[in-house]
Design a protein that fits this description.
By secondary structure, the chain is α+β, with helices and mostly antiparallel strands. The chain has a domain at about 65-170. Helix content is about 35%, strand content about 20%. It contains 4 helices and 5 strands. It has helices at about 1-20, 35-40, 70-75, 145-170; strands at about 80-85, 90-95, 105-115, 125-130, 140. It has a 5-stranded antiparallel β-sheet with strand order 1-2-3-4-5, with helices on one face. It is flat and about 75 Å long.
């Protein structure tokens, strides 16, 4: 009786699955994946993350090293050990850092990227300060706004320099002749 019950359940599941698929007409859906995605988004059945209307082609990659703000942030805190650096998540977290080996005080910094643009509100920086009387008796507080402002200013300044260097490196001036048209012979 147990085998019969299993067969009935399997057949009922299969019938339910096939019945659920029977209302779909494949001709209503474009065969191209991009077209299907676009149609679903237009009908409110999907979404895209970071969709700015620009379609990236093959070979067009955005690596962390090409992001000036990310590079500037890492360079600014490069003296501190990192606990986590997640480019896709947009966050850098340092480990606790102390300049002296025997010190009872240390700091930890987290930098969250709100945008890739080099603007004053692009970063959410938190600085934590830890003071320990012993290994087990530590007090952790968030540090003052002054350190956050200094870090933000330093990161944005470096990012602006990196951005300018990148633009200068990629600048390609027009090398055509002025006053001539393509395909015409300037023979008189």
């Amino acid at each position: 009786m147990n085998k019969k019950l299993k067969k009935i359940l399997i057949l009922a599941s299969l019938f339910g699955f096939l019945n659920a698929c029977s209302g779909v007409d494949a001709r209503q859906f474009p065969p191209d994946a991009e077209s299907r995605v676009k149609k679903n988004i237009e009908e409110g059945r999907g979404f895209r993350l970071f969709d700015d209307g620009i379609k990236g082609g093959s070979g067009n990659f955005d690596f962390a090293s090409s992001n000036s703000l990310w590079r500037a942030s890492l360079d600014t805190i490069d003296f501190m050990p990192l606990a986590s650096a997640n480019y896709s998540g947009g966050i850098i977290i340092t480990d606790w850092y102390s300049s002296d080996m025997g010190s009872t005080e240390s700091i930890k910094i987290s930098i969250r990227f709100l945008t890739n643009e080099i603007v004053s509100n692009a970063l959410d920086i938190k600085v934590f300060y830890k003071k320990c009387a012993s290994n087990e008796n530590c007090k952790i507080i968030e540090k003052s706004e002054n350190i956050k402002k200094q870090l933000t200013k330093k990161i944005l300044t470096k990012a602006a320099v990196y951005e300018k260097e990148s633009k200068d490196k990629n600048f390609k001036p027009y090398k055509g002749k002025l006053g001539t048209r393509e395909g015409s012979d300037n023979q008189n």
